[in-house]
Specification:
Two copies of one chain form a homodimer.
Chain A: H1 2-12, E1 21-25, H2 30-42, E2 49-56, H3 61-78, E3 82-86, H4 89-96, H5 100-118, E4 123-125, H6 130-143, H7 147-150, E5 156-157, E6 160-161, H8 169-178, H9 187-192, H10 194-210, H11 215-244, E7 245-248, E8 252-256, H12 257-261, H13 265-280, H14 288-300, E9 306-309, E10 313-318, E11 321-326, E12 336-339, E13 344-347, E14 352-360, E15 373-377, E16 385-388, E17 395-396, E18 405-406, H15 407-413, H16 418-423, E19 426-428, E20 433-436, E21 440-441, E22 453-461
Parallel strand pairs in A: 1-2, 1-4, 2-3, 4-6
Antiparallel strand pairs in A: 5-6, 7-8, 8-11, 9-10, 10-11, 12-16, 13-14, 14-22, 15-22, 16-19, 17-18, 19-20, 20-21
Helix pairs in contact in A: 1-2, 2-8, 4-5, 6-10, 6-11, 11-13, 13-14
């Protein structure tokens, strides 16, 4: 029953397809253990590969180590590849002035993505359930997020999937009991995330007693209708953005002021956010007030006045132009290094070393698990091989995909901030991109059963 | 300061214009007394007429009578016309199976509209403030309303205006103290409206202590952004509706199925609501589930299947048509009566009597306060005068307006249910509508300084 519901969710939202790599984040607690076993059962319906990642948050010493051992043992028993990492959540939080919750989340996803890179890409499955969704909505409601916050967590957001979003905590508990699944007590939730806990343990029971016994289901429905409305407004605004944009390059976006002024305020605000996101690769640190300031500037339209935003972004108006521009972006920082067989090349802009070798297929043992080694079909390479940073108009056929993708869009999808975009090394031959380091390899150069000679690139970050 | 803020709100949202009639609902409590005095002060900036309406809810016997006397006395002192009515809120609630709150609201607005009719139309000013707005948002959030609920109460909704929506309860209390305004304790709020009270007295203080000390301001901002998004989606959906609609008559609406199927689900749901509202004049009793059922019917598209909705509305599909139809609506109930000078005419469909007289201007004392007498410029009348019900294509130039308005749209704006629309008597001459009884008189026939002869219509509901 629970497994059927999860399978339904997966199919309805197209979360997992045949051939996918799915990396499950497993803490050892009931939610993630239920997710793991449900996904195992679903492998009979959809053929995908499972991987397990465990993060040791570095709090509660011995207990955390035991959690890690527990998950590792389960992985071994199930024959599923296991990856783990110890992180210093509290230290990172102090250093970057974040809440423990935010620090933990950032470090977790950073690790998950590292693992994904080493398994040639895939999806990260996390165990958020219906009750988590309700808690999220309440927290966001109190914080004052609008429509786009109250849609809640999404079934799918980039490479993150949430197959349990339609399943309540009670259903998970029943499933754990029914299947006799061993779990560890997930103390992290109880200790660190103060606000969420107050909502779970005090506020929701109060709402249930006084206002709405089905509050969790009610808020789940709210998230669904909000999600529909938000999706439409996003799509519509992006369409309008494309009609408004006059210039869109590395360090600036220029919109047509006349056309902008004709839009509804709900659309104007989204076009502003969209412009900021496209240019800087993030909306972190952008609050409602920033957007309002930009909007006021655009509506007054004083030529010469400007508004400063985070990430060195400057917004100004000039006659018929609305201008977003990154200040002090050195656009003359192009670099290019030639790679030679058997030689190591130091790329100072990325502080890393690339070593290139070529072997006949029968002479080499491929190790796809080592994420610092990449293999390509050498006979498909044309001309010399270089490491360089991005150029205007770069495209790649990403591994596993049939069409080409603009590098710019890849950066946007992967949420790469603007400064990083200028530095990321790209492996190219005469014609094409072979590998965007840290992000994607190309479908065109992949190893196949017909590969005769293998290009081996060893990569080391200093 | 408070008065300036209120004046700002009024100007920004265009709530009151020169020449308006503004009827203030005054309970005698701090909010409505503050509203009354603030509006008085604003009369120096905008020239409008004030009227006071007080509703005696018929609970708490003697105390309620004293409230009424208190407001009457203030009205007298200020020289403002005073209207009051005793209603049986609890009886009406029992009879119509409503909460006391809903019953009270319905009866109050019914009375306010009766008064408006007698003063030749105008606006109803109510004293909802920023804190009321926050409470409303929380209640609706717990109930699971989407975007269109979380926009909260509007500054202006039809003929209702809310000049205090930007003012907090604290600001009102300070204003009352500063101006030394006498008020009565508004016990009704404390006694009857259980949910709102729990939110005011328990929940908001808890949120302030634990999550957000500025929750009232935060939710006020939420209501603003939600309102923007909702407004855009409504406007956009209405546009789409107009492109989808093939037939729109008295008892049916037919949409083009092919075009409908291409819309986003967020827009589809709004088009369905819009169709229901246009046809029946109300969305009361229409829940999310009704809309979802209609949507599923439309998406499956089984010709011949149908969904029944409240207000005798039936929805079905037929080949390329999506059909909304009122069942058993007698469309052959047209009526028409000729009015004769000096004679009384009984209109059985409205159970009322109309008496027509004509006087030279100098022979008559006009009494605009008597809402059962209407005056028109007799020399502008062409041909005979009739009382009839609506006909296809009827339009009117409403009093105070320069353009014509479809009668259908007037009914929709005034939220007249479909059955009423068939019955409402309309005074016409050969060419035009003179008066839609109970709703609007025509600009064309109004009394002016040049009027020589006056058409007097006396109206009595039996």
């Amino acid at each position: 029953m629970v497994e059927d519901k999860i399978l339904n969710t997966i199919k309805k939202h197209n979360l997992i397809e045949n051939g996918d790599n799915v990396l499950v984040g497993v803490s050892g607690g009931p939610d993630s253990m239920a997710l793991l076993y449900a996904l195992l059962s679903i492998q009979t319906e959809i053929s995908f590969s499972l991987y397990i990642a465990h993060v040791n948050h570095g709090v509660r010493g011995r207990e955390a180590d035991e959690d890690e051992k527990f998950v590792e043992k389960i992985s071994g028993k199930l024959g599923i590849p296991f990856y783990s990492k110890k992180i210093d959540m509290e230290g990172y939080a102090r250093e970057h002035k974040l809440s423990s919750e935010d620090a933990g989340r950032r470090l977790r996803y950073k690790f998950f993505r590292e693992v994904l890179l080493s398994i040639n890409g895939g999806k990260i499955a996390v165990a958020h359930n219906k009750n988590d969704q309700a808690e999220t909505l309440i927290m966001r409601f109190f914080r004052g997020t609008g429509l786009d916050g109250l849609k809640g967590m999404e079934y799918r957001n980039g490479d993150i999937i949430r197959p349990l979003l339609d399943i309540s905590r009670n259903e998970i508990e029943d499933y754990i009991l029914e299947k006799n699944i061993n779990t560890r007590l997930d103390r992290t939730n109880l200790e660190n995330i103060y606000n969420r806990n107050k909502i779970r343990l005090e506020l929701i029971p109060y709402i249930v007693d006084n206002f709405n016994p089905n509050i969790v289901d009610t808020l789940w429905r709210t998230s669904r209708t909000m999600s529909n409305d938000s999706e439409f407004l996003e799509e519509f605004s992006k369409e309008r953005y494309r009609e408004l944009v006059k210039v869109e390059d590395k360090n600036s976006i220029i919109l047509c002021r006349q056309k902008f002024s004709r839009e509804h305020i709900a659309i104007k605000q989204r076009i502003i956010r969209h412009s900021i996101y496209n240019l800087t690769g993030t909306l972190d640190g952008i609050s409602e007030i920033h957007v309002r300031n930009v909007l006021e500037l655009f509506e007054r339209g004083d030529t010469g006045k400007s508004v400063d935003l985070p990430n060195r972004l400057e917004v100004k108006t000039s006659y018929d132009d609305l201008i977003f521009r990154i200040k002090n972006l050195n656009v003359n920082n192009n670099y290019k290094y030639s790679l030679k067989r058997g030689q190591a090349t130091y790329v100072k802009e990325w502080n890393s070393i690339f070593k290139m070798e070529v072997y006949p297929m029968e002479k080499i043992q491929l190790n796809f698990k080592d994420r610092f080694i990449k293999y390509f079909d050498y006979d498909k390479i044309k001309g010399e091989i270089y490491i360089r940073n991005r150029r205007l108009g770069d495209t790649i056929q990403p591994f596993g995909m049939s069409g080409n993708k603009k590098l710019k869009d890849l950066f946007i999808d992967k949420k790469i901030p603007i400064d990083e975009r200028e530095k990321i090394p790209i492996l190219v031959d005469k014609n094409d991109i072979i590998w965007v380091v840290g992000l994607r390899t190309s479908e065109k150069y992949k190893i196949t059963p017909y590969t005769k000679n293998v290009l081996v690139i060893k990569y080391k970050n200093l």
